[in-house]
Amino acid sequence: MSPHLPLPLELVVRNGVVVTASDTIRCDIGVCNGRIVILGENLPRGEREIDAAGRFVTPGGVDTHCHLAQPMTPPIRLADDFESGTRSAACGGTTTIIPFAEQKRGGTLTHALEDYHARAEGRASIDYAFHLIVADPAQEALNEEIPRLVAQGYSSFKLYMTYPGLRLDDRQLLELLAVAKKHGAMAMVHAENSDSIARLTESLTAAGLTAPRFHAASRPMLVEREATHRAISLAELVDVPILIVHVSSSEAVEQIRYARARGLKVFAETCPQYLLLTAEDLGIDDDYSGAKCVCSPPPRDSSSQQAIWNGLAEGLFTVFSSDHSPFVFDGTSGKRPGGKEVAFPYIPNGIPGIETRLPLLFSKGVLEGRITISRFVELTATNPAKAYGLYPRKGTIAPGADADIVVWDERPIVLRNEMLHHACDYTPYEGMALSAWPAYTLLRGEVVWDGLEFIGRPGNGRFLRCGLPALLPQSRR
Ligand code: DUC
Ligand code: ZN
Ligand code: ZN
Q1: Average pLDDT of the residues of the chain
Q2: Is the domain defined by 61-387 classed in CATH 3.20.20.140?
Q3: Are strands 131-133 and 94-102 parallel, antiparallel or unpaired?
Q4: Domain ranges of the chain
Q5: What is the percent of the chain where pLDDT is above 90?
Q6: In testing the pocket of ligand 1, which one of 67, 244, 322, 327 has its CB within 8 Å of the most ligand atoms?
Q7: Best mutation site among 131, 167, 193, 296 for ligand 1, i.e. most ligand atoms within 8 A of its Cβ?
Q8: Which residues pair with 54 in a beta bridge?
Q9: Digit-coded pLDDT (tens) for 234-266
Q10: Per-residue pLDDT for 470 more than 50?
Q11: Distance 414 CA to ligand 1 centre (A)
Protein backbone atom coordinates (compact mmCIF):
# COMPACT_ATOMS: atom_id res chain seq x y z
CA MET A 1 0.00 0.00 0.00
CA SER A 2 1.33 3.43 -0.87
CA PRO A 3 2.72 5.29 2.20
CA HIS A 4 0.92 8.40 0.91
CA LEU A 5 -2.50 6.80 0.67
CA PRO A 6 -4.98 8.79 2.76
CA LEU A 7 -6.51 6.42 5.32
CA PRO A 8 -9.16 5.66 6.12
CA LEU A 9 -10.52 5.81 2.60
CA GLU A 10 -13.73 7.80 2.43
CA LEU A 11 -15.34 5.19 0.19
CA VAL A 12 -14.41 1.84 -1.27
CA VAL A 13 -16.32 0.40 -4.21
CA ARG A 14 -15.41 -3.22 -3.75
CA ASN A 15 -15.32 -6.29 -5.99
CA GLY A 16 -16.28 -4.65 -9.23
CA VAL A 17 -15.29 -5.43 -12.79
CA VAL A 18 -13.91 -1.97 -13.53
CA VAL A 19 -14.04 -0.95 -17.17
CA THR A 20 -12.17 1.87 -18.86
CA ALA A 21 -11.83 2.68 -22.54
CA SER A 22 -8.80 0.38 -22.64
CA ASP A 23 -9.07 -2.19 -19.82
CA THR A 24 -11.37 -4.42 -17.83
CA ILE A 25 -9.94 -5.21 -14.40
CA ARG A 26 -11.43 -6.89 -11.36
CA CYS A 27 -10.47 -4.54 -8.52
CA ASP A 28 -11.61 -2.19 -5.77
CA ILE A 29 -11.79 1.59 -6.14
CA GLY A 30 -10.63 3.80 -3.25
CA VAL A 31 -12.05 7.31 -3.00
CA CYS A 32 -10.96 10.33 -0.94
CA ASN A 33 -12.33 13.87 -1.13
CA GLY A 34 -14.53 12.92 -4.04
CA ARG A 35 -11.63 11.69 -6.15
CA ILE A 36 -10.35 8.26 -6.99
CA VAL A 37 -7.04 7.74 -5.19
CA ILE A 38 -6.31 4.08 -5.80
CA LEU A 39 -7.37 1.02 -7.75
CA GLY A 40 -6.27 -2.26 -6.19
CA GLU A 41 -7.10 -5.62 -4.70
CA ASN A 42 -8.24 -6.03 -1.09
CA LEU A 43 -8.18 -2.33 -0.24
CA PRO A 44 -8.53 -1.53 3.46
CA ARG A 45 -12.03 -0.92 4.75
CA GLY A 46 -13.43 2.47 3.83
CA GLU A 47 -15.65 4.76 5.90
CA ARG A 48 -18.34 3.82 3.42
CA GLU A 49 -18.44 0.69 1.32
CA ILE A 50 -20.33 -0.27 -1.81
CA ASP A 51 -20.24 -3.92 -2.78
CA ALA A 52 -20.24 -4.10 -6.57
CA ALA A 53 -20.46 -7.90 -6.21
CA GLY A 54 -18.72 -8.78 -9.47
CA ARG A 55 -20.83 -6.39 -11.53
CA PHE A 56 -19.55 -4.06 -14.23
CA VAL A 57 -18.38 -0.67 -12.99
CA THR A 58 -18.00 2.10 -15.57
CA PRO A 59 -17.21 5.83 -15.47
CA GLY A 60 -20.17 8.14 -14.93
CA GLY A 61 -21.66 9.07 -18.27
CA VAL A 62 -20.68 12.33 -19.94
CA ASP A 63 -23.56 13.54 -22.11
CA THR A 64 -22.20 16.27 -24.31
CA HIS A 65 -25.33 17.00 -26.30
CA CYS A 66 -28.49 17.86 -24.40
CA HIS A 67 -30.87 20.79 -24.22
CA LEU A 68 -32.11 22.00 -20.84
CA ALA A 69 -34.04 25.17 -19.97
CA GLN A 70 -33.36 26.60 -23.41
CA PRO A 71 -35.83 29.47 -23.94
CA MET A 72 -38.34 28.85 -26.75
CA THR A 73 -41.04 30.91 -28.39
CA PRO A 74 -44.16 30.70 -26.18
CA PRO A 75 -46.26 28.66 -25.70
CA ILE A 76 -43.49 26.15 -26.50
CA ARG A 77 -41.27 25.24 -23.60
CA LEU A 78 -38.66 22.53 -23.02
CA ALA A 79 -40.05 20.07 -20.49
CA ASP A 80 -36.82 19.84 -18.49
CA ASP A 81 -35.03 22.53 -16.58
CA PHE A 82 -31.70 21.94 -14.84
CA GLU A 83 -33.37 20.36 -11.83
CA SER A 84 -35.47 17.72 -13.58
CA GLY A 85 -32.98 17.20 -16.41
CA THR A 86 -29.97 16.55 -14.18
CA ARG A 87 -32.06 14.37 -11.84
CA SER A 88 -33.09 12.27 -14.82
CA ALA A 89 -29.50 12.12 -16.10
CA ALA A 90 -28.21 10.90 -12.71
CA CYS A 91 -30.83 8.15 -12.48
CA GLY A 92 -29.64 6.84 -15.85
CA GLY A 93 -25.94 6.90 -14.93
CA THR A 94 -24.85 10.29 -16.29
CA THR A 95 -22.79 12.52 -14.01
CA THR A 96 -21.63 15.29 -16.36
CA ILE A 97 -23.57 17.15 -19.02
CA ILE A 98 -22.75 19.82 -21.54
CA PRO A 99 -25.96 21.58 -22.60
CA PHE A 100 -26.05 24.63 -24.83
CA ALA A 101 -26.10 28.36 -24.16
CA GLU A 102 -27.80 29.79 -27.24
CA GLN A 103 -26.96 33.24 -28.51
CA LYS A 104 -29.94 35.21 -29.83
CA ARG A 105 -29.43 37.26 -32.95
CA GLY A 106 -28.64 40.79 -31.84
CA GLY A 107 -27.55 39.48 -28.42
CA THR A 108 -24.13 38.53 -27.13
CA LEU A 109 -22.77 35.14 -26.19
CA THR A 110 -21.74 36.58 -22.84
CA HIS A 111 -25.32 37.53 -22.11
CA ALA A 112 -26.52 34.07 -23.15
CA LEU A 113 -24.01 32.50 -20.75
CA GLU A 114 -25.08 34.71 -17.86
CA ASP A 115 -28.66 33.67 -18.47
CA TYR A 116 -27.86 29.95 -18.63
CA HIS A 117 -25.65 30.07 -15.55
CA ALA A 118 -28.59 31.58 -13.66
CA ARG A 119 -30.81 28.77 -14.95
CA ALA A 120 -28.40 26.09 -13.72
CA GLU A 121 -27.32 27.68 -10.43
CA GLY A 122 -28.86 25.97 -7.41
CA ARG A 123 -30.71 23.47 -9.60
CA ALA A 124 -28.15 21.16 -11.20
CA SER A 125 -27.50 17.98 -9.23
CA ILE A 126 -24.66 16.77 -11.49
CA ASP A 127 -21.67 18.59 -12.95
CA TYR A 128 -22.07 20.70 -16.05
CA ALA A 129 -20.27 22.83 -18.60
CA PHE A 130 -21.68 24.80 -21.52
CA HIS A 131 -21.28 24.75 -25.27
CA LEU A 132 -22.02 28.01 -27.05
CA ILE A 133 -24.49 28.20 -29.94
CA VAL A 134 -23.25 30.95 -32.24
CA ALA A 135 -26.20 32.48 -34.10
CA ASP A 136 -24.79 35.93 -34.78
CA PRO A 137 -21.10 35.89 -35.71
CA ALA A 138 -20.47 39.63 -35.81
CA GLN A 139 -16.84 40.81 -35.96
CA GLU A 140 -16.83 41.57 -32.23
CA ALA A 141 -17.89 38.00 -31.46
CA LEU A 142 -15.32 36.52 -33.86
CA ASN A 143 -12.37 38.66 -32.81
CA GLU A 144 -12.91 39.25 -29.12
CA GLU A 145 -15.80 37.54 -27.45
CA ILE A 146 -15.29 33.96 -28.64
CA PRO A 147 -11.51 33.99 -27.99
CA ARG A 148 -12.13 35.35 -24.48
CA LEU A 149 -14.83 32.75 -23.77
CA VAL A 150 -12.68 29.88 -25.07
CA ALA A 151 -9.94 30.97 -22.64
CA GLN A 152 -12.53 31.09 -19.85
CA GLY A 153 -13.61 27.47 -20.33
CA TYR A 154 -16.26 27.56 -23.04
CA SER A 155 -14.18 25.80 -25.64
CA SER A 156 -16.81 24.42 -28.00
CA PHE A 157 -19.48 25.96 -30.16
CA LYS A 158 -22.31 24.61 -32.24
CA LEU A 159 -22.90 25.89 -35.75
CA TYR A 160 -26.24 25.32 -37.44
CA MET A 161 -26.57 24.87 -41.19
CA THR A 162 -30.37 25.00 -40.81
CA TYR A 163 -33.20 26.44 -38.65
CA PRO A 164 -34.42 30.02 -39.05
CA GLY A 165 -32.73 32.24 -36.47
CA LEU A 166 -29.73 29.92 -36.17
CA ARG A 167 -28.67 29.04 -39.70
CA LEU A 168 -25.27 30.30 -40.80
CA ASP A 169 -24.22 30.70 -44.42
CA ASP A 170 -21.01 29.17 -45.78
CA ARG A 171 -19.01 32.38 -45.35
CA GLN A 172 -20.06 32.60 -41.70
CA LEU A 173 -19.21 28.94 -41.20
CA LEU A 174 -15.76 29.53 -42.68
CA GLU A 175 -15.15 32.53 -40.41
CA LEU A 176 -16.15 30.53 -37.35
CA LEU A 177 -14.07 27.52 -38.35
CA ALA A 178 -11.10 29.86 -38.67
CA VAL A 179 -11.76 31.11 -35.13
CA ALA A 180 -11.94 27.50 -33.91
CA LYS A 181 -8.59 26.81 -35.56
CA LYS A 182 -6.90 29.91 -34.19
CA HIS A 183 -8.03 29.36 -30.60
CA GLY A 184 -8.14 25.56 -30.44
CA ALA A 185 -11.92 25.33 -29.92
CA MET A 186 -14.11 22.44 -31.05
CA ALA A 187 -16.65 23.33 -33.75
CA MET A 188 -19.78 21.16 -33.64
CA VAL A 189 -21.88 21.21 -36.79
CA HIS A 190 -25.60 20.53 -37.28
CA ALA A 191 -25.52 19.40 -40.89
CA GLU A 192 -28.77 19.70 -42.85
CA ASN A 193 -29.34 21.75 -46.01
CA SER A 194 -31.70 24.54 -45.02
CA ASP A 195 -33.00 25.65 -48.40
CA SER A 196 -33.78 22.09 -49.47
CA ILE A 197 -35.75 21.52 -46.27
CA ALA A 198 -37.65 24.79 -46.79
CA ARG A 199 -38.58 23.90 -50.36
CA LEU A 200 -39.63 20.35 -49.54
CA THR A 201 -41.65 21.58 -46.57
CA GLU A 202 -43.50 24.07 -48.75
CA SER A 203 -44.35 21.46 -51.37
CA LEU A 204 -45.53 18.92 -48.81
CA THR A 205 -47.73 21.38 -46.94
CA ALA A 206 -49.12 22.82 -50.20
CA ALA A 207 -50.19 19.28 -51.09
CA GLY A 208 -51.90 18.91 -47.70
CA LEU A 209 -49.29 16.43 -46.46
CA THR A 210 -48.95 17.80 -42.96
CA ALA A 211 -49.04 14.77 -40.60
CA PRO A 212 -46.00 14.22 -38.36
CA ARG A 213 -44.63 11.53 -40.65
CA PHE A 214 -44.01 14.10 -43.39
CA HIS A 215 -41.36 15.65 -41.17
CA ALA A 216 -39.12 12.78 -42.30
CA ALA A 217 -40.02 13.38 -45.95
CA SER A 218 -39.09 17.06 -45.58
CA ARG A 219 -35.57 16.19 -44.41
CA PRO A 220 -34.46 13.15 -46.43
CA MET A 221 -30.98 11.65 -46.13
CA LEU A 222 -29.79 13.67 -49.09
CA VAL A 223 -30.13 16.97 -47.21
CA GLU A 224 -28.00 15.59 -44.39
CA ARG A 225 -25.52 14.01 -46.81
CA GLU A 226 -25.02 17.25 -48.75
CA ALA A 227 -24.57 19.39 -45.65
CA THR A 228 -22.25 16.85 -44.06
CA HIS A 229 -20.09 16.85 -47.18
CA ARG A 230 -20.10 20.66 -47.27
CA ALA A 231 -19.17 20.94 -43.59
CA ILE A 232 -16.31 18.49 -44.14
CA SER A 233 -15.11 20.44 -47.17
CA LEU A 234 -15.24 23.79 -45.37
CA ALA A 235 -13.30 22.32 -42.47
CA GLU A 236 -10.74 20.88 -44.89
CA LEU A 237 -10.36 24.28 -46.51
CA VAL A 238 -9.66 25.89 -43.14
CA ASP A 239 -7.71 22.84 -41.97
CA VAL A 240 -9.48 22.49 -38.65
CA PRO A 241 -11.04 19.51 -36.83
CA ILE A 242 -14.85 19.45 -36.63
CA LEU A 243 -17.40 17.27 -34.92
CA ILE A 244 -20.55 16.47 -36.87
CA VAL A 245 -23.36 16.07 -34.34
CA HIS A 246 -26.35 13.70 -34.40
CA VAL A 247 -25.38 11.72 -37.51
CA SER A 248 -28.53 9.82 -38.46
CA SER A 249 -28.15 8.18 -41.85
CA SER A 250 -26.12 5.71 -43.87
CA GLU A 251 -25.42 8.48 -46.41
CA ALA A 252 -23.97 10.79 -43.76
CA VAL A 253 -21.94 7.83 -42.45
CA GLU A 254 -20.49 7.47 -45.98
CA GLN A 255 -19.39 11.10 -45.83
CA ILE A 256 -17.66 10.59 -42.49
CA ARG A 257 -15.90 7.54 -43.95
CA TYR A 258 -14.85 9.62 -46.94
CA ALA A 259 -13.41 12.28 -44.65
CA ARG A 260 -11.53 9.76 -42.54
CA ALA A 261 -10.16 8.08 -45.65
CA ARG A 262 -8.76 11.47 -46.67
CA GLY A 263 -7.08 11.72 -43.30
CA LEU A 264 -9.24 14.63 -42.17
CA LYS A 265 -9.86 15.29 -38.49
CA VAL A 266 -13.60 14.84 -38.74
CA PHE A 267 -15.27 13.47 -35.62
CA ALA A 268 -18.84 12.25 -35.45
CA GLU A 269 -21.54 11.91 -32.86
CA THR A 270 -24.68 9.79 -32.97
CA CYS A 271 -27.59 9.25 -30.60
CA PRO A 272 -29.90 6.41 -29.46
CA GLN A 273 -32.77 7.54 -31.70
CA TYR A 274 -30.75 6.70 -34.80
CA LEU A 275 -30.12 3.16 -33.57
CA LEU A 276 -33.54 2.34 -32.23
CA LEU A 277 -36.17 4.39 -34.07
CA THR A 278 -37.05 4.58 -37.75
CA ALA A 279 -39.16 6.98 -39.82
CA GLU A 280 -42.06 4.59 -39.22
CA ASP A 281 -42.09 5.76 -35.62
CA LEU A 282 -43.28 9.12 -36.95
CA GLY A 283 -46.45 7.26 -38.01
CA ILE A 284 -47.35 4.93 -40.84
CA ASP A 285 -50.66 6.74 -41.23
CA ASP A 286 -51.61 10.26 -40.19
CA ASP A 287 -51.72 9.43 -36.48
CA TYR A 288 -50.52 12.45 -34.48
CA SER A 289 -48.72 10.32 -31.87
CA GLY A 290 -45.86 10.20 -34.41
CA ALA A 291 -45.10 13.74 -33.19
CA LYS A 292 -43.42 12.09 -30.19
CA CYS A 293 -40.54 11.03 -32.45
CA VAL A 294 -40.19 14.24 -34.46
CA CYS A 295 -36.57 15.30 -34.17
CA SER A 296 -33.94 16.58 -36.59
CA PRO A 297 -32.36 14.89 -38.35
CA PRO A 298 -35.28 12.43 -38.34
CA PRO A 299 -34.94 8.71 -37.63
CA ARG A 300 -34.28 6.82 -40.88
CA ASP A 301 -34.56 3.15 -41.89
CA SER A 302 -33.16 -0.18 -40.78
CA SER A 303 -30.17 0.02 -43.13
CA SER A 304 -29.18 3.38 -41.64
CA GLN A 305 -29.54 1.88 -38.18
CA GLN A 306 -27.16 -0.89 -39.22
CA ALA A 307 -24.70 1.61 -40.74
CA ILE A 308 -24.66 3.50 -37.45
CA TRP A 309 -24.17 0.33 -35.41
CA ASN A 310 -21.27 -0.60 -37.68
CA GLY A 311 -19.76 2.85 -37.26
CA LEU A 312 -20.05 2.61 -33.48
CA ALA A 313 -18.41 -0.80 -33.37
CA GLU A 314 -15.57 0.18 -35.73
CA GLY A 315 -14.63 3.44 -34.06
CA LEU A 316 -15.96 5.69 -36.82
CA PHE A 317 -18.06 7.50 -34.23
CA THR A 318 -16.32 9.34 -31.46
CA VAL A 319 -19.21 10.33 -29.22
CA PHE A 320 -22.62 8.89 -28.28
CA SER A 321 -24.92 11.59 -26.87
CA SER A 322 -28.62 11.86 -26.11
CA ASP A 323 -29.60 15.11 -27.89
CA HIS A 324 -32.16 15.24 -25.07
CA SER A 325 -34.63 17.87 -26.19
CA PRO A 326 -37.84 17.05 -24.33
CA PHE A 327 -41.30 18.39 -25.12
CA VAL A 328 -44.45 17.06 -23.47
CA PHE A 329 -46.93 15.30 -25.75
CA ASP A 330 -50.06 16.38 -23.86
CA GLY A 331 -50.73 19.90 -22.62
CA THR A 332 -50.08 23.11 -24.48
CA SER A 333 -46.33 23.72 -24.31
CA GLY A 334 -44.95 20.79 -26.29
CA LYS A 335 -45.79 18.62 -29.24
CA ARG A 336 -49.31 20.13 -29.39
CA PRO A 337 -48.58 23.84 -29.25
CA GLY A 338 -51.53 25.61 -27.63
CA GLY A 339 -53.16 22.19 -27.15
CA LYS A 340 -53.64 21.68 -30.89
CA GLU A 341 -52.46 19.09 -33.38
CA VAL A 342 -50.40 21.15 -35.81
CA ALA A 343 -48.84 20.64 -39.24
CA PHE A 344 -45.39 18.99 -39.02
CA PRO A 345 -43.37 22.21 -39.56
CA TYR A 346 -44.80 23.55 -36.29
CA ILE A 347 -44.10 20.48 -34.15
CA PRO A 348 -41.20 21.27 -31.82
CA ASN A 349 -38.19 19.18 -32.77
CA GLY A 350 -36.69 16.89 -30.21
CA ILE A 351 -37.18 13.85 -28.02
CA PRO A 352 -36.32 12.99 -24.43
CA GLY A 353 -33.41 10.61 -23.76
CA ILE A 354 -30.99 11.88 -21.11
CA GLU A 355 -31.85 9.03 -18.72
CA THR A 356 -32.16 6.21 -21.23
CA ARG A 357 -28.96 6.90 -23.22
CA LEU A 358 -26.65 4.65 -21.21
CA PRO A 359 -29.08 1.81 -20.40
CA LEU A 360 -30.11 1.60 -24.07
CA LEU A 361 -26.54 1.36 -25.35
CA PHE A 362 -25.49 -0.97 -22.54
CA SER A 363 -28.42 -3.31 -23.21
CA LYS A 364 -28.68 -3.16 -27.00
CA GLY A 365 -25.00 -2.58 -27.69
CA VAL A 366 -22.91 -4.33 -25.05
CA LEU A 367 -25.17 -7.08 -23.78
CA GLU A 368 -26.49 -7.96 -27.23
CA GLY A 369 -22.90 -8.23 -28.52
CA ARG A 370 -22.79 -5.29 -30.95
CA ILE A 371 -20.04 -3.31 -29.22
CA THR A 372 -17.47 -4.12 -26.56
CA ILE A 373 -17.86 -2.73 -23.09
CA SER A 374 -14.64 -0.70 -23.45
CA ARG A 375 -16.07 0.85 -26.59
CA PHE A 376 -19.23 1.67 -24.61
CA VAL A 377 -17.09 3.52 -22.06
CA GLU A 378 -15.13 5.29 -24.77
CA LEU A 379 -18.28 6.49 -26.56
CA THR A 380 -20.31 7.52 -23.55
CA ALA A 381 -17.70 8.94 -21.20
CA THR A 382 -14.01 8.99 -22.20
CA ASN A 383 -14.23 10.47 -25.69
CA PRO A 384 -16.89 13.05 -24.81
CA ALA A 385 -14.66 14.19 -21.93
CA LYS A 386 -11.66 14.34 -24.26
CA ALA A 387 -13.54 16.09 -27.05
CA TYR A 388 -14.45 18.98 -24.80
CA GLY A 389 -11.39 19.21 -22.58
CA LEU A 390 -12.74 17.58 -19.40
CA TYR A 391 -10.48 14.52 -19.45
CA PRO A 392 -8.99 12.99 -17.27
CA ARG A 393 -10.97 14.66 -14.46
CA LYS A 394 -14.09 13.24 -16.11
CA GLY A 395 -14.66 10.22 -18.32
CA THR A 396 -12.48 7.55 -16.75
CA ILE A 397 -11.81 5.48 -13.65
CA ALA A 398 -8.24 6.24 -12.65
CA PRO A 399 -6.35 7.78 -9.74
CA GLY A 400 -6.89 11.54 -9.83
CA ALA A 401 -10.23 11.40 -11.64
CA ASP A 402 -13.44 12.52 -9.98
CA ALA A 403 -15.16 9.52 -8.43
CA ASP A 404 -18.03 9.54 -10.93
CA ILE A 405 -18.96 5.88 -11.11
CA VAL A 406 -21.77 3.64 -12.29
CA VAL A 407 -22.36 0.10 -10.99
CA TRP A 408 -24.52 -1.87 -13.41
CA ASP A 409 -27.33 -4.21 -12.51
CA GLU A 410 -28.05 -6.78 -15.20
CA ARG A 411 -31.73 -7.74 -15.05
CA PRO A 412 -34.68 -7.75 -17.42
CA ILE A 413 -36.52 -4.42 -17.50
CA VAL A 414 -39.44 -3.25 -19.58
CA LEU A 415 -38.92 0.46 -20.09
CA ARG A 416 -41.88 2.59 -18.99
CA ASN A 417 -42.05 6.36 -18.82
CA GLU A 418 -43.28 6.13 -15.23
CA MET A 419 -39.84 4.73 -14.23
CA LEU A 420 -38.08 7.82 -15.53
CA HIS A 421 -37.27 11.05 -13.70
CA HIS A 422 -37.57 13.66 -16.43
CA ALA A 423 -40.50 16.07 -16.65
CA CYS A 424 -41.65 14.69 -20.00
CA ASP A 425 -44.85 12.66 -20.25
CA TYR A 426 -43.51 9.99 -22.60
CA THR A 427 -40.44 8.10 -23.72
CA PRO A 428 -40.11 7.09 -27.38
CA TYR A 429 -38.85 3.73 -26.11
CA GLU A 430 -41.98 2.82 -24.12
CA GLY A 431 -42.26 -0.97 -23.72
CA MET A 432 -38.73 -1.70 -24.97
CA ALA A 433 -37.05 -4.69 -23.30
CA LEU A 434 -33.74 -3.78 -21.65
CA SER A 435 -31.28 -5.98 -19.79
CA ALA A 436 -29.52 -3.54 -17.46
CA TRP A 437 -29.91 -0.35 -15.47
CA PRO A 438 -27.53 1.45 -13.08
CA ALA A 439 -27.67 0.00 -9.56
CA TYR A 440 -25.72 3.02 -8.35
CA THR A 441 -24.62 6.33 -9.78
CA LEU A 442 -21.94 8.16 -7.83
CA LEU A 443 -21.01 11.79 -8.34
CA ARG A 444 -17.66 12.70 -6.80
CA GLY A 445 -18.04 9.74 -4.41
CA GLU A 446 -21.62 10.55 -3.34
CA VAL A 447 -24.46 8.25 -4.27
CA VAL A 448 -26.98 10.19 -6.37
CA TRP A 449 -29.00 7.17 -7.54
CA ASP A 450 -29.25 3.95 -5.54
CA GLY A 451 -31.19 1.86 -8.00
CA LEU A 452 -34.52 2.84 -6.49
CA GLU A 453 -34.42 6.53 -5.74
CA PHE A 454 -32.76 9.75 -6.73
CA ILE A 455 -30.78 10.92 -3.71
CA GLY A 456 -28.77 13.71 -5.29
CA ARG A 457 -29.19 17.32 -4.32
CA PRO A 458 -30.14 20.21 -6.60
CA GLY A 459 -27.33 22.75 -6.34
CA ASN A 460 -24.68 20.09 -5.76
CA GLY A 461 -23.68 20.04 -9.43
CA ARG A 462 -20.55 22.06 -10.15
CA PHE A 463 -19.84 24.19 -13.16
CA LEU A 464 -16.83 22.87 -15.09
CA ARG A 465 -14.56 24.97 -17.24
CA CYS A 466 -13.60 23.06 -20.35
CA GLY A 467 -10.01 22.93 -21.52
CA LEU A 468 -9.08 22.50 -25.15
CA PRO A 469 -10.18 19.34 -26.96
CA ALA A 470 -7.76 16.44 -26.55
CA LEU A 471 -8.86 13.81 -29.05
CA LEU A 472 -5.73 13.81 -31.15
CA PRO A 473 -2.68 12.47 -29.32
CA GLN A 474 -0.11 13.94 -31.67
CA SER A 475 -1.20 17.56 -31.42
CA ARG A 476 -2.55 19.94 -28.83
CA ARG A 477 -6.01 19.07 -30.20
N1 DUC B 1 -32.64 18.73 -33.30
C2 DUC B 1 -31.72 19.60 -32.94
O3 DUC B 1 -30.90 20.00 -33.74
N4 DUC B 1 -31.71 20.06 -31.70
C5 DUC B 1 -32.66 19.70 -30.74
C6 DUC B 1 -33.57 18.68 -31.11
C7 DUC B 1 -33.59 18.25 -32.49
O8 DUC B 1 -34.40 17.48 -32.88
ZN1 ZN C 1 -28.68 19.94 -33.90
ZN1 ZN D 1 -29.46 19.13 -30.24
Answers
A1: 97
A2: yes
A3: parallel
A4: 61-387
A5: 97
A6: 67
A7: 296
A8: none
A9: 999 999 999 999 999 999 999 999 999 999 999
A10: yes
A11: 27
pLDDT in tens, 5-49: 888 999 999 999 999 999 999 999 999 999 999 999 999 999 999
In this structure, which ligand is nearest to the CA of 159? Answer: 2
For residue 66, the CA-to-ligand 3 centroid distance in Å is 6
Task: Give me the DSSP letters along 270-309.
Answer: E-THHHH--GGGG-SSS-GGGGGG--SSPP--HHHHHHHH
Cis previous bond, 99, omega within 30:
no
Which residues are placed with Cβ below 5 angstroms of ligand 2, an ion?
A: 190
For the chain, how far is it from start to end, CA to CA, in angstroms? Answer: 36
> Whose C-alpha lies nearest to ligand 1, atom 2?
296
Positive or negative: CA dihedral 103, 108, 113, 116: negative
CA–CA dist 447, 459 (Å, integer): 15
Mutate to test the pocket of ligand 1, among 193, 295, 321 (most ligand atoms within 8 A of CB): 295
Distance 325 CA to ligand 1 centre (A): 7
Q: Is 5 exposed, middle or buried (0-12, 13-18, 19+ CB in 10 A)?
A: middle
Single pTM value for the model = 0.97
What's the confidence (pLDDT) of residue 6?
Answer: 80
Pairing type for strands 94-102 and 56-59 reads unpaired
Element (H, E) at 66: strand 61-66
Angle at 408 between CA 20 and CA 395, to 5 degrees: 30
Residue with CA at minimum distance from ligand 1 atom 6: 350
